[in-house]
Hints:
The structure holds two protein chains of two kinds.
Chain A: H1 21-36, E1 41-42, E2 50-62, E3 68-73, H2 81-88, E4 91-102, E5 105-112, E6 117-122, H3 132-161, H4 166-177
Antiparallel strand pairs in A: 1-2, 2-3, 2-4, 4-5, 5-6
Helix pairs in contact in A: 1-3
Chain B: E1 8-16, H1 23-33, E2 48-53, E3 69-70, E4 73-82, H2 87-105, H3 112-129, E5 133-142, E6 147-150, H4 155-169, E7 172-175, H5 186-194
Antiparallel strand pairs in B: 1-6, 1-7, 2-4, 3-4, 4-5, 5-6
Helix pairs in contact in B: 2-3
Amino acid sequence: MSEFQGGSDGVPGGADDEIPGHIAADFYLWTWFASEVGRGQVDVPDQSPFTWWVDDRLSFRSAGEDKVNAVLTGDNPSTTPEARAALAGGKVLRDVRLALRRDDREYAVTLRGSGIQIAGAKLPALVKTGDPAEIIYERMFLYEELNWMVGAMFRRFAEERTSPEWSSFADRMRAWAGGRAADEV
Amino acid sequence: MGALKGTISARRYQVMGELPAGFQDEYIAKLNDNAFRDALTAAHKEERLGWVQVHNLLDTDFDDLNMWLYQQYAVFQMRVDKKVLPAKLFQATFQKRQQTWCKANNREKVPFSVKQELRETLELEMLAMTLPRVTTAEVVWNTAEGWVLFHSHAEAQNDRFRKLFHRTFGFILKPVTPFDYLSDLPDTAARLMSGGTTDLRAVPE
């Protein structure tokens, strides 16, 4: 028996732990559409709420492929006709860069790939210099808050994605992708 | 970078196991045992890897806890060195060496065994002149809560990291995914897995 267990590559925690690509694609789409129609907020009992919106980057892939084949960057790429045309043309999201705000703390993060990995996470700068212990402690607290927010969003998405209402939600997204304004769908 | 400054791009793992009481002293020895070591010869070509301090990749001594343990956070780096010869330059030089040998020995072709010897000699010469390609990735281990951030998303780096972590501390690392936030909603998680991508193409009338 191998010294390692749990991954097809002989390394603990290997590629077997990937989650199916369709889940990440739908999650990214949900974060985008929800923020467009003013629902980019999560309220968690006994916690202060947080809001999010698409920041400055969206990247798309064709369904069934992993390679990025279109990237939109710049100011408000999510509001451009090109972005919605990509969805209407059958492309799905591979990465999305979000901005999140909780209380007075603002974050930016790219959620990437089928594993919904956190990349390029920009944390609020509270302590910039000083004791390394203080800096690490604070940065890890902020990272944990960001991680918690992503988890809370995913939880909300999972509940909506598996509810009977998802079909009508998808119809609204389809109309929006087809060119109708977010407040009209 | 990431632990101390800059943006964070990291994969998160759950440490499968409990830390022993008073782990600090034991882990000094474990980190020192698996610290990065320079190759004994300049012509060494195999990949080398090990732990280094987060402050400077040349610092490989973990005796001072204050340099790597900050409250409950153990912070260090994985360093990987690999020497890669410039392929085109190697081939061109190898060809010249063969031509020189043929001329000196008045032969049209280089015998196989000589070719091997010329190749090995040249490889050793060039490796001795080549600096390694050095990569590092930070590790932040929350020893109180049992999770680790590894500051790289590259699969190969993560494979190396999980192996080295297991070899050093004896713990298996389990990747954390958003599904971990559905642990109390198993039915929702199962239904989510079985769905497909939502197709937003217009439905033909």
